[in-house]
Structure formats: structure tokens, C-alpha cells
Amino acid sequence: MTIESTIAELVEAGKTVTFIRASLVVAGYKPKDISEAIKAANLSRSRGTGFRAQFYLWLQEGVVTEDEAKSFIEAHGTGNDIKHTGHYLAIAELANAIHDQA
Q1: Residue 50: left if φ>0, alpha if ψ -120 to 50, beta else—which one?
Q2: Structural Rg of the chain based on CA atoms
Q3: What count of Cα atoms within 13 Å lies in the side-chain half-sphere of residue 81?
Q4: Secondary structure letter of residue 91 according to DSSP
Q5: Does residue 1 contact residue 28 with C-beta atoms inside 8 Å?
Q6: pLDDT beyond 90 at 13
Q7: What DSSP assignment string belongs to 42-85?
Q8: How many CB atoms are located within 10 Å of the residue 73 CB?
Q9: Which CA distances in Å does 95 have to 55, 56, 58?
Q10: Sign of the four-CA dihedral 31, 33, 35, 38
């Protein structure tokens, strides 16, 4: 199996770039080859699909209330995300301020 086909298979399985990199290291590929292949696969600039990426995309839609933000965090976040609700509320407040300025 080539590095390119391994990347394609892992992307198809929904794995993150971090997971893909780790898998390729374990498979014995050189770090330089991994970086080049990930860049060629157009994955190096991925924002991800985790909670933070979802939260930031949601905030781009417009102004949200504190209660809406808390509900989103509780519905979509992991235990660690929920533990850091204050951090995400501050980000939501900043996003609201930016929306108000626009």
C-alpha cells in the first residue's frame, strides 16, 4: 500500500489529520514524506471537524445569546469542552462583538 492510498483510506474512514500522521509514522514513513503527501492530499490546511471547528462555524452565522451558546456546548461538546464552557462563552462574546462591528 502506498502512502497516498493509505491517506485516502484513512480520510474515507473519517480520521483526523493528526490520526493520519500518527498512523503513517507507525507504518514507518519518513516525516518529510508524510508532510509532502498530506500537503498533496490537500489536508494540511484542514480546520477539522471536531467541536471547536463546529462551534466556530456556528458562531460565524450571527449573534448568539449566552444561553444559546451554553446549549450548543452541552449538546455538541465533550466532557472537557463542557468543563471549559467559560472559555467558549468568552469566544462567543468576542464573536458577537465582531458581528456588532460589521
Answers
A1: beta
A2: 18
A3: 18
A4: H
A5: no
A6: no
A7: T-TT---SSHHHHHHHHHHTS---HHHHHHHHHHH--HHHHHTH
A8: 20
A9: 11, 9, 10
A10: negative
Q: Round to whole Å and give the CA distance between 18 and 86.
A: 26
Helix, strand, or coil here: 94?
Answer: helix
Q: What is the mean pLDDT of the chain?
A: 90
pLDDT in tens, 77-87: 999 999 999 99
C-alpha grid cell, residue 56? 466556530
The sign of the torsion formed by the CA atoms of 12, 16, 18, 23 equals: negative
Under a CB-based contact definition with an 8 Å cutoff, are residues 76 and 57 in contact?
Answer: no
State the Cα–Cα distance between residues 96 and 19, nearest whole angstrom: 33
Task: Give pLDDT tens digits for 18-55.
Answer: 889 999 999 999 999 999 999 888 886 556 668 888 89
